[in-house]
Amino acid sequence: MTVVRRKTAGRKAAASTAGRPAAKPAKERILDAGEQLFARNGFYGVSVRDITEAAGVDVALVSYHFGGKRELFAAVFRRRAEMLNPERLALLEEVRRSALPGVPALEDIVNAFTYPMLERSARGGAGWKSYFALVAQVNNSPEWGPVLMTEHFDPLVERFIAVLREALPGCDAREVYWGYQFLTGALTLTFAETGRIDKLSGGLCRSSDLDSVHQRLARYVAAGFRALCTAAAPAPHGARSKTRRSALRKIPRRPP
Amino acid sequence: MTVVRRKTAGRKAAASTAGRPAAKPAKERILDAGEQLFARNGFYGVSVRDITEAAGVDVALVSYHFGGKRELFAAVFRRRAEMLNPERLALLEEVRRSALPGVPALEDIVNAFTYPMLERSARGGAGWKSYFALVAQVNNSPEWGPVLMTEHFDPLVERFIAVLREALPGCDAREVYWGYQFLTGALTLTFAETGRIDKLSGGLCRSSDLDSVHQRLARYVAAGFRALCTAAAPAPHGARSKTRRSALRKIPRRPP
DNA sequence: ATCTTGATTCAACGGACGTTGAATATTTTT
DNA sequence: AAAAATATTCAACGTCCGTTGAATCAAGAT
User: Fold this and answer.
1) pTM of structure
2) Helix (H) or strand (E) holding B111
């Protein structure tokens, strides 16, 4: 009956005068809060109420603006992919064009793939950092990976692999696909920034030091591609026994 | 009052005669079911009831045997780590010993690290496959990775890195740590088996084909290590501009 | 045979979950 | 200024959540 409407008035005042964060529209603030929280605890580890409280909006707005929690998750994932990937594609084409009539160096191709991500994760703001941590989890999730990664990244990846194959003439396509798989695994774990390398190295390396990654990943991966492609052609067995046979022994099967 | 105890009698009969799965003790069946479900949907994506229903036991047994859901998750993670890592360590030492008085090939060191996992994921049974998919998610999770990976894998990893450094004399320690980081990222994404490489390659490569990974990963990673370590010594800038400078442009900062 | 201990079942708890519909407020269009 | 469209608030819904305590069962020890 005599309840005073503190909330509404208070929110309005805070939005127009006091706090910075209330400047953005609610829909965007939900995306920001969801991005941060989903990156930390995954889809099921975050409730709609967690997100709306962090965003300072009402719970019902998630269903209103996005249709539901799952759709919000997809929208979070889509938002920055659409900002990022056109630029990565343009950079890749630029690398390719500037190497004509030859083919670009493998390092440059890999860099075109990784640099826009590493650069934004390092200096693009907290939102981008959260986003890439989220990508790391999605990429390794059997539930979300096949859906979201395929939908938003595969067109770019296909073009990237095509350019890689140009730069690796005569190399079996399978080697390139596996080489890409190893690259994306290394890249996404980097974005997870779990701090594990910090502990392992006793502080010598830091997860957050993406410049160190930028200086090393392309070289590492390019060498890996070359090693895969200079290996014996599709001869499944024989030769090169040193790397495969030397000290390996069979693992016994589990007892039934 | 007159309720008939169908459940108990039925379960007992099924356990002793009809079904295979009831042969194991309840505690182990909970671990098995949790392993499978956690691997698919993560910690928060699976309820205690999901697990106990899959295991065919009462809900209360999770709290009774493990103390709670979180402790069950940790127990699932610990169980196979304790089977696996002593063997990986023994294999590493065997590789090292059999190379004396020299140092082992990088490929053999990496293989000692990866082969026991790849072999079990390929031929160790469904439980092992689930387990490594779970490891892939944990390794990329900012919430669980630092806790569980550090606790159960770091002693092994430290020894592994020490041997790597023996095999890379004169190489800066940071290069080895980063090289390991890229390796574990590539390895764990492989275990996630999201099927993404299958779609990308049009069926040419299969996520589940861990033998293909075994044939390629050690070569790829060893070449990567060598590339990191033969690069210009800790000279942070200069030289080698081709790999770093050529076609890269600055990414503009976000508007404030 | 009785006692003891550990394993399992059952029912229930308070709370958090995602979503909804009606009511209200705000902005845009006419 | 009125009307329409959009945005936000509030309260509540039914459901599922993890955990608990008391009761029952199954064996082994005394």
Assistant:
1) 0.86
2) helix B106-123
